[in-house]
Amino acid sequence: MSVYGTEPVAGPEGLTYAALLVRAERSDVLAALTRERFSGWVGPQDDGWVVAVPEHARGHVAAHRRRVDDLAAVVAQDLTTAAVAVLVQRDRLLRLWASDGVVPVTDYVSDAHVAYPHDDEAYGTEGLEGVRGLATLAGHPEAADDLTALLAEELGESESESERLMAVCRLLGWPQWLVAVDSLPRRVPGGPGAEAFTRLRAGRTGVGGLLAARAAAVVRRSE
Question: Which pTM value belongs to this model?
């Protein structure tokens, strides 16, 4: 088990979680996610970034059966800003997608064999060529070399992708509580209280959101 401070962030099977980071005013991000009928939690602004956590990490998270990477691209274009999608799968795979407005910046895969298990030729890390652009997009071009080395590294058996993501957060100035968002709807260890998040269901809050979520569940997959 990996521990940051006093809070565990990975269990024996490893965690699976996802997040969308948008560099914009929270009200603008909330409006964009409402338009996209996002299902999940929208956090407070933290050092310029707003973090949204989808209800289903690997499934459809918004209208038109969009997954978290698709949603990042749409929101980046909608708000003409930087948006990054993060996916950690069982702590064995880290994926990063980033867009700057309409321009794709990176599509990073830490282990292609894990990402594409049915492809016998898939192996190793993919997308390192976009890592420098990711550092610049995050406002930390000076971290490009360290970020590239970190994301190129093959993890040891006792290491996890949450540990790697924590190091990425330190380099790029992202909220380090990102590695604990799987705790929602309870308090995020090391991060904001649950009351600081806005709960959206198919882009709506309250009872209307519950009804909208039931209708959306017919066409959205959770995996």
Answer: 0.84
DSSP state of 153: P
Omega into 54 within 30° of 0, i.e. cis? no
Question: Does residue 96 contact residue 104 with C-beta atoms inside 8 Å?
Answer: no
Q: What is the mean pLDDT of the chain?
A: 87
For 176-210, write each residue's pLDDT tens digit. Answer: 999 999 999 999 999 999 899 999 998 777 545 44
CA distance 74 to 85: 11
Distance CA(77)–CA(102), nearest Å, equals 5
The CA distance from 103 to 80, in Å, is: 10
d(CA 33, CA 35): 5
Q: For tokens 């702590």, what's the residue? A: 91
- Give the single-character DSSP code of 138: T
Q: What are the CA-CA distances from residue 19 to residues 22, 58, 156, 165 (Å)? A: 10, 11, 24, 12
**In this structure, what token pair is assigned to residue 5?**
């401070």
CB atoms < 10 A from the CB of 139, how many?
15
Q: How far apart, in Å, are the Cα atoms of 92 and each of 13, 25, 152, 204?
A: 9, 33, 14, 33
Contact 104/73 with Cβ under 8 angstroms?
A: yes
Task: From residue 90, give the alpha-carbon distance in Å to each of 108, 150, 206, 212.
Answer: 17, 19, 31, 30
Q: CA triplet 184, 17, 121: central angle to 5 degrees?
A: 175
Distance from the Cα of residue 19 to its chain's centroid:
2
Task: Determine which helix (DSSP H) or strand (DSSP E) holds 51, and give its type and residue range.
Answer: strand 49-54
